[in-house]
Amino acid sequence: MRKEGDVVRNFERELKANFNEILGVLSDESLISDGKGAVLWVNPGFEQVYGIRSEEALGMTVYELEAKGYFKPSIIAKALERREKVTMVQKTNRGSDILVTATPVYDEQRNIKMVVSYSHDITELKAIQRKYSNLQNQVEKYMTELHELRKGSCGEQDVIGQSLQMEKIIATINRIADLDANVLLLGESGVGKTMLAKVIHQKSQRASGPFIDINCAAIPENLLESELFGYEKGSFTGANVHGKVGLMELADGGTLLLDEISEIPLALQAKLLKAIQEKTLTRVGGTKPVKVDFRLIAATNRRLEEDAETGKFRKDLYYRLNVVNIKIPPLCERREDILPLVDYYTELFNTKYGLHKAWSPEAMEYLTNYSWPGNIRELANVIERVIVISGDSMIGAGDLPEEITNRRQSAGSSMLEEIESLSHAVENLERELIQQAYEKHRTTTGVAKALKISQPTAFRKVSKYIKKPKE
What we know:
50% of the residues lie in helices and 16% in strands. The protein has 21 helices and 17 strands. It is elongated and about 110 Å long.
């Protein structure tokens, strides 16, 4: 007990001897007043923040300091008034925001004998809070804009058609939309594969998520991997210094459409298969796996099953994609859909351009009898072009493009024979062009540049018409 008493007495002596030094390091700014608000002591931090020397402050009351504008309001005055601990934000005469706390010290009769206040400059903190608030508002604005962009890129889609084939396709979509299974859309260019993919997305549980549409044939082969999977900073010459998030990551929580999937190189197909199976991907130049969760829809105008059998497409990837298979027939095989499509696009483009155009019976007959080799894409293009350039509100046969009026077809076998002969002529012309380009350039890269097609397409065409192509 004696030793403990000696320790306490020594501490008290040290405390009295070093009172100013001890209080000076307790907080940024400190002030002690008596029970009536007269200043008894301030530390050096108080002098710097409030702009008054300690010898000036000593003896003054906190009420006088408040009146002179050194701070407002007086926290000690509030503590004396309420007889309890008070915390608040004070404004100094230098424009700083100070978080200050005043704590009363009582005697044995519960009278306040002094008040100790300590404070911290939060001007910088409040500036950060304002920036954070502004950032939150900006993020909210961007999220709203992103939502609107998503609505625009994947707005309400209608399946236009009354043919038996389209009724079966719509029934299939309604059955599988919510099942989250992979879907493979097959059909010629322009038949509406992208539109049907959007319908599947809208009817699914992922409708509120992103819809990412990637045309694999439109991205150069040497960039396709980095566009799909993203890349880390410094992965290759010319890469963004901060790296880049891939399109597959952007589809997280939504739907990923890989259009023209047959154009993906075999080497990249293996990496794609792994990402689909494991729901993870690794960015180019990276080592850390990234979790992704998307519904996959693939589309192609090629016979992918045949490509898988001949080794032009990986069988294991084909089987993974071909969970739900939807074949979309060309427009010439579902002629019942031509008239509804003409009506739909006429209304669409009339609204877009503020016009009121209509079709004469003769013009409508030409439209419904035309074979539409470019399918819905060609039909929409023709409708828009004619509506824009025709001079009268009633569109006549003379306003139609020559390819439609010069190739008027009758329904039945004669129409089918004409389609077959046209297809044969197109194939012969394609073969001749490919052979001439290959004889001149000797590589598929040279063929691609000469005919302005992608290198994978050139490789495929050369493989079809010429044996053992060179890269």
